[in-house]
């Protein structure tokens, strides 16, 4: 929806995984657009390239080719997010939209690098996934103040409501599959990011 409304010509995605979100973004972009998507897992990068080829989103190689395209191109940049950002910054690329969906611990670093290196166009914007993180960010401040959290039940009523609503096809919640403590660590990083953005002048 956002892509169709804003019609960005160049998009950066941090965190490709299987390529689903990149395809969704591409579907809403204008013809001739290009997406650069960064993925550190070689297997995920390979599988996402196969998906992009299946959907006829072949990678671009030069800006001239991008301008002449009638479709949307997706280029996978292999490596961790910071290395991908540095590579794209050296190419003096600027983006109409950026989608953060990589490791949560680096959200603040990605955000700062993008702004510090003038990687957004004047009308550009940053989208960040998981900013509510199953409601667990509501507990982040309180949990960080507690030093004996592990000795007590980790669930608040808010957290359990959100987690119960995120069951997978096997009937297990993401919490059961990944573990509450790991989820809470992710949420704590996202909470720090949210506060960083809010306080950034």
Keywords:
alpha/beta; five-stranded parallel beta sheet; globular; SAM_O-MeTrfase; SAM-dependent_MTases_sf; catecholamine metabolism
Unreliable residue stretches: 151-172
Give me the Rg, rounded: 19 Å
Average of per-residue pLDDT values? 82
Q: Provide the succession of SSEs.
A: HEHEHHEHEHEHHHH
Q: Give the fraction of residues assigned to helices.
A: 40-55%
Number of helices: 10
SS class:
alpha/beta
Question: Can you characterise this structure?
Answer:
- A five-stranded parallel β-sheet has the order 3-2-1-4-5, with helices on both faces.
- It is α/β, with parallel strands linked by helices.
- It is globular.
- The two termini are 28 Å apart.
- Strand 4, helix 6 and strand 5 form a beta-alpha-beta unit.
- It has ten helices and five strands, in the order αβαβααβαβαβαααα.
- It is an enzyme of class 2 (transferase).
- Belongs to the class I-like SAM-binding methyltransferase superfamily. Cation-dependent O-methyltransferase family.
- This is catechol O-methyltransferase.
What is the secondary structure topology, with strand pairs?
Elements: H1 2-6, E1 10-14, H2 20-28, E2 34-39, H3 42-54, H4 63-68, E3 73-78, H5 81-90, E4 95-100, H6 107-116, E5 120-128, H7 140-145, H8 157-164, H9 174-178, H10 180-199
Parallel strand pairs: 1-2, 1-4, 2-3, 4-5
Helix pairs in contact: 5-6
């Amino acid at each position: 929806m956002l892509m169709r409304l804003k019609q960005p010509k160049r998009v950066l995605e941090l965190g490709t995984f299987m390529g689903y979100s990149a395809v969704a973004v591409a579907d809403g972009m204008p013809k001739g657009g290009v997406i650069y998507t960064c993925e550190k897992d070689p297997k995920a990068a390979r599988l996402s390239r196969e998906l992009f080829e299946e959907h006829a989103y072949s990678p671009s190689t030069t800006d001239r080719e991008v301008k002449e395209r009638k479709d949307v191109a997706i280029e996978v940049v292999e490596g961790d997010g910071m290395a991908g950002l540095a590579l794209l910054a050296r190419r003096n690329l600027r983006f109409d939209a950026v989608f953060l969906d990589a490791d949560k611990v680096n959200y603040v670093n990605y955000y700062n690098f993008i702004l510090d290196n003038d990687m957004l166009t004047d009308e550009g914007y940053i989208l960040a996934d998981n900013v509510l993180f199953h409601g667990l960010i509501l507990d982040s401040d309180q949990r960080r103040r507690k030093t004996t959290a592990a000795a007590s039940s980790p669930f608040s009523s808010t957290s359990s409501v959100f987690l119960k609503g995120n069951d997978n096809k096997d009937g297990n919640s993401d919490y059961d599959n990944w573990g509450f403590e790991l989820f809470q660590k992710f949420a704590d990083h996202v909470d720090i990011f949210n506060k960083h953005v809010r306080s950034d002048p």
